[in-house]
Design brief:
Elements lengths: L8 H7 L3 H6 L5 H15 L3 E5 L5 H6 L5 E6 L2 H8 L8 E5 L13 E5 L10 H12 L4 E7 L10 E2 L5 E6 L5 E5 L5 H8 L3 E8 L3 E8 L1
Parallel strand pairs: 1-2, 1-4, 2-3, 4-5
Antiparallel strand pairs: 5-10, 6-7, 7-8, 9-10
Length: about 220
């Protein structure tokens, strides 16, 4: 009998074992990724950064090179333990368990960063998430998002719901199958949804990735 498809995204990511290979370092898109890395350095040098859904610390490792401070958060404690094995400078990076959709954190921040997470936020929840971040970061705080782009002929979608959210099916090493929200917004959709929430909004599009920057209104 076929196992039921699961929907707990936190449980899915807790069992993943190939973050960098599958999500980030696509060999066909490395030029775009390199450009995004340089823009990220430009945007976040000297910032006090709240990082959402840090996973195994791939992006945290980058931020630690130039941010003044990073609070790297994730809902999965075991992923934070993986991130800690990178041995990042303690005077720059701290870790905390937090739900990225409603992070309950303390500290003073000038920026928020999320790598490969915004695509998992349902369209109908996005404005509320930004409002919560504004309460933490404050007006004029910098928001930087990086995520996957739709790739014609490669990106597979299992279904689309009534709100326009798209879903993919992924398997984990133990054989379980998960249905995961994975949205691929066009530039126009990003601008339309984010313009009321952000100023100085910029979208940078590459073949495999996109990057959004803006300041909270």
């Amino acid at each position: 009998m076929t196992n039921a498809v699961l929907t707990d995204m936190a449980a899915y990511y807790a069992q993943r074992d190939n973050f960098d290979e599958e999500d980030v370092e696509n060999p066909d898109g490395m030029d775009g990724l390199d450009e995004i890395m340089e823009m990220l350095r430009t945007q976040l040098t000297g910032q006090r950064v709240l990082e959402l859904a840090c996973g195994d610390g791939y992006w945290t490792d980058e931020l630690a090179e130039y941010a003044d401070y990073v609070l790297a958060t994730d809902i999965n404690p075991n992923l934070l333990e993986m991130a800690k094995t990178r041995e990042l400078p303690e005077e720059v990076v701290e870790f905390a368990v937090a739900d990225a959709l409603n992070p309950q954190v303390e500290g003073e921040f000038t920026a928020c960063f999320a790598g490969f997470w915004w695509s998992h936020v349902k369209r109908q929840d996005q404005a509320d998430v930004i409002a919560r971040l504004r309460n933490i970061i404050g007006k004029d705080g910098l928001l930087v998002l990086v995520d996957n782009a739709w790739i014609e002929g490669e990106t597979a979608i299992a279904r689309t719901d009534a709100e326009g959210n798209t879903y993919q099916i992924h398997s984990v090493p133990n054989g379980d199958r998960y249905e995961i929200v994975k949205n691929y917004p066009a530039d126009s959709a990003l601008r339309k949804r984010m313009a009321p929430l952000l100023k100085e909004l910029r979208v940078h599009r590459h073949s495999h990735y996109w990057m959004l920057t803006g300041r909270l209104r």
